[in-house]
Amino acid sequence: MFSFSDHSDFSSRRCVWVNGPVIVGAGPSGLAVGACLKEQGVPYVILERADCIASLWQKRTYDRLKLHLPKQFCQLPKFPFPEHFPEYPTKIQFIEYLESYAQHFGINPQFNECVQSAKYDEACQFWRVKTVSTTGEVEYLCQWLVVATGENAERVVPEIEGLQEFGGQVIHACDYKSGEKFRGKKVLVVGCGNSGMEVSLDLCNHDAKPSMVVRSSVHVLPREIFGKSAFELAMFMMKWLPLWLVDRLLLVLTWFILGNIENYGLKRPSVGPLELKNTQGKTPVLDIGALEKIRSGEINVVPGIKRFWCGMVELVNGEKLKIDSVVLATGYRSNVPYWLQETEFFTKNGLPKAPFPNGWKGKAGLYAVGFTKKGLSGASADATRISQDIGKVWKEELKQKKQRVPTHRRCISQF
Ligand SMILES: Cc1cc2nc3c(=O)[nH]c(=O)nc-3n(C[C@H](O)[C@H](O)[C@H](O)COP(=O)(O)OP(=O)(O)OC[C@H]3O[C@@H](n4cnc5c(N)ncnc54)[C@H](O)[C@@H]3O)c2cc1C
């Protein structure tokens, strides 16, 4: 370990030189990069603000969650899911898989260490990554910085008039675990993406009375079409057909299976589901039972919110509903702009400017993994590219030094 204290800013921040990349985030993306770097023989350090790997899955998801896509589209590089896992592994199984992934590749992130800022220092040509943890403040110096903090790092909480006056329980979907606590209650679920639909379904299954706010349009597709996953079928058709035609076919098949969802207050976007995903990153909802509950009236679909009153919500159509609780299934956002001092590679929303598959590499040793809007398969593709890119430079540098191990490998990197 090569570390020293820097008193220049009158604080006692420890400085650590990392021989290899610093990876920020120990979710599936950070773990995938760690595993691929290991294969390339490149040491690294992973910094994670939580006290465990995959904190999104372990701490911020509901109990009934299963992978939305079949397991073959969700496995990380170089380590398949166990064969006995079902087609759609449960959240617990996915966490188990990630734990064995980390163990298999000997990945040991530094937990409880939150990255507060990262900046490229032109003068010394290193990244300066500052963290805070329970044991103090540290500044890491490194040649490569891999951003793996995810598209879902922070919750989005919209400002809605009167929410302060409402008086009942208001939670974000990331704090929702199960409908058990809501038994018999009238719950307003704000949002109709995969989370909003599944929370509403879960509430029904626990004898609560959900009303789901559908402000704009949404694509709902069956999770399976003729026994095959809709996603797999779409990927298959894309090999032969143009995107617009695949979109049309998907919508026709959906109409046969689910009927006309507009009959239930769900408006379809004018753009097809795959085109919408590609252009705006909006994921279609894969129905796993919520639509049946909407059809039977157990989930009440309501239009946008005008404002909240004490114990009540007023909708844009003037209707007023008495409610006990609110679940905000209003999504997540990246936190990159809050800590990465860089404007060339990332947008102000914290996503790479270049679209997939080109948004993984920036300048001066900056990389991004898991920002493709393509879930775990996109993260795996990024991780493979990043590790090969860094591995190439690493091996060239080693060759140039004409020695097997560089002299400065006195550091905290994992190997
Ligand atoms: C409810 C839900 C269900 C989903 N289901 C699927 C699915 O079935 N299939 C699929 O492909 N995708 C799914 N996704 C998408 C999901 O985002 C990915 O599966 C996956 O979790 C992304 O991994 P990641 O490592 O990029 O991000 P994350 O899992 O969010 O991990 C990022 C890590 O970075 C850490 N971090 C953030 N900021 C800092 C900081 N400043 N310093 C240090 N550490 C930091 C976080 O604590 C976190 O552990 C789902 C998402 C949600 C919310």
From TrEMBL:
Its cofactor is FAD. The keyword Oxidoreductase applies. It comes from the Eukaryota. The keyword Oxidoreductase applies. It catalyses: indole-3-pyruvate + NADPH + O2 + H(+) = (indol-3-yl)acetate + CO2 + NADP(+) + H2O. InterPro entries: Auxin_biosynth/cation_transpt, FAD/NAD-bd_sf, Flavin_mOase-like, NAD(P)-bd_dom_sf. Pathway: Plant hormone metabolism; auxin biosynthesis. Its EC number is 1.-.-.-. SUPFAM superfamilies: FAD/NAD(P)-binding domain, NAD(P)-binding Rossmann-fold domains. GO terms for biological process: auxin biosynthetic process. Pfam families: FMO-like (PF00743). One of its GO terms (molecular function) is indole-3-pyruvate monooxygenase activity. Keywords: Auxin biosynthesis, FAD, Flavoprotein, Monooxygenase, NADP, Oxidoreductase. Belongs to the FMO family. This is Flavin-containing monooxygenase. It comes from Ilex paraguariensis.
